[in-house]
Amino acid sequence: MNHTTPAPTAAPTDRTYLLERIGEAAVVQVYADAFRDLPLRERTLVWHLGQAAIAGRDIFYDQRYAHNLEMRDVLEAIVTHPAGVDRSTLDEIACYTKLFWINTGPYNNLTSRKFVLTCPPASFAAAAHAAERAGARFPLQAGDTLDALLARLQPMFFDLDVDPIVTSKTPRAGKDILTASANNLYVGVTTADLEGFEEQHALNSRLVKRDGELVEEVYRVGGRYSEQITAIVHHLDAAIPYATEPMAKALRALITFYRTGDEADREAYDIAWVQDKASPVDTINGFVEVYLDARSVKGAWEAVVSYVNHEKTSQIRTIAEQAQWFEDHMPWDPKYRKEGVHGVTANAIDIVAETGDSGPVTAVGINLPNSQAIRERYGSKSVSLSNVNEAYDRSTLPEFRTEFSWTLDEAERSTRWNAFASELTTNMHEVIGHGSGKVAERLNGNPQSALKEQYSAIEESRADLVALYFLPDRQLVEFGLVREDAQEEIVRTEYESYTRNALVQLRRVREGTHIEEDHMRNRQMIVHWLMAQTSAIDVRSRGGKTYYVMTDVRAFRDGVGRLLAEVQRIKGEGDYAAALALLDTYGVHFDPALRDEVVARVDHLQLPSYTGFVMPRLDTVTNASGEITDVTISYPLDLSAQMLEYSAATRHLRS
Ligand SMILES: [Zn+2]
Questions:
Q1: The pTM is what?
Q2: Strands, E, within 194-299: which ranges?
Q3: What is the pLDDT of residue 3?
């Protein structure tokens, strides 16, 4: 599970964070300041893990859309050979290409919806021919011409009605969630086909219907994505000598899993990974989160490479150390309380590389592994991404707060406390939110299979509610997590900003009248449930503008406690009907007129809807015998340069 709300504040600084604005997206450089102070051994380890991260990047492109890599090749061929391309066409292609890189294909990361080129197809073709004359090479198959290639891809580049949604959990009546989703996790498979079919490689395979039979194409060495996975394994292997023993054990287990693709080996890897609690460097590499799949089953490939940020770690660690206290005080039926909570490992980290499902658009907190059975037995690891939070913080515009706050007081409170409140709630969300609770025995530690496409949004709701519930608790002062004289202000700030967010986040869904993304569904649901069931929130209007105003902290918290008890019950019992009703009533649908108003307000102020991050760049210095004698870090400040470099690094792996 990951958590994706940034902590917005603005702080002046003399280095560049916000690099450019492309449509609704902001491009921001992330910095990893403490990297240069790591010992050479750890920097070398990070280097190899970073190479493994780049090696797998194309897997996620392919998983997200079957035409993605071909489309990317065409775009990159044009933008790298601009001589002779008409200026305005080139501008449009460059803009589209950047959005394509940020979103890993032509689907908006948050809305799941397709975006298209707006120049005429003939201008695009002219640009491609100009690029070809300038020496560009296009991904032509045997007997293919450039015109044939462009004709084949024209619907993908230009037609909003062809493959319109990448993940469609709420398709139009009569449509199937799998065939309505444009992703490449299934080919010709409907939900009905899956009845009675037992997947052997649920997380790491593409499911294809071939001659009426379901076939699992397993992601492993010798299977699907063999070239990329072999390259990943090569780099992980090179990393092992520089890792601590517990981390080396986890890396060896991961390599075994990449070779066999077997569920038992994936479990062994998850266990080894979660048991590596103290290593200063860590990586997530594999088929992990299930948000891309409308069924919430298939893992999307991602890689994160990070080191521990010691300065920032104390808060999240304190929450982890007190996990049993929180568990004992959960406002839900005691039968869902976990006893003997152990193994919750929490760190603040700085990321050095994020690819695939985790970059350029990144989470700010991560809690893994996702397997409920392993979490209950072996615990979990929670991280907050400190340098991503910092980059969000430094790149956010102050108008975000003032525009949607009902009073000046509210806006000022947000300026003062929002970064702190938001980081604390993110940490609680990850550690005691996702980390808490247990489910009924008969679910075999797998509530996902009962809750199906509703699972992720229910689990995100649960984690948010836990954080919101404990924020006002006096015990937080005892634990040293908040100052006694500031707690009331912090609680009010967070409740206000959580409430405002249900309005502000509508800017991200510019088409349609419903929400697909699970974190967004969860936040709409909680705020609208509180509006309907408590007196905590008022909807007000002034000067033609709508405001969501949090008016009663106590009513808010009481409501959160009641809702949390119900959401835990839904997860604990795998109550699909209740999950569907709750989310469909409060979380999925919205008023398009209200959305249009919000969009007009943010566009007027030129506020971005989401952010793509440029990663640091690592380089090695080697001696005459090829050994690494130094690993240096620098900051490209340039999305295009980094994306082109990553693409070039793996082109040879695509046969
Ligand atoms: Zn989460």
A1: 0.85
A2: 205-210, 213-218, 281-289
A3: 56
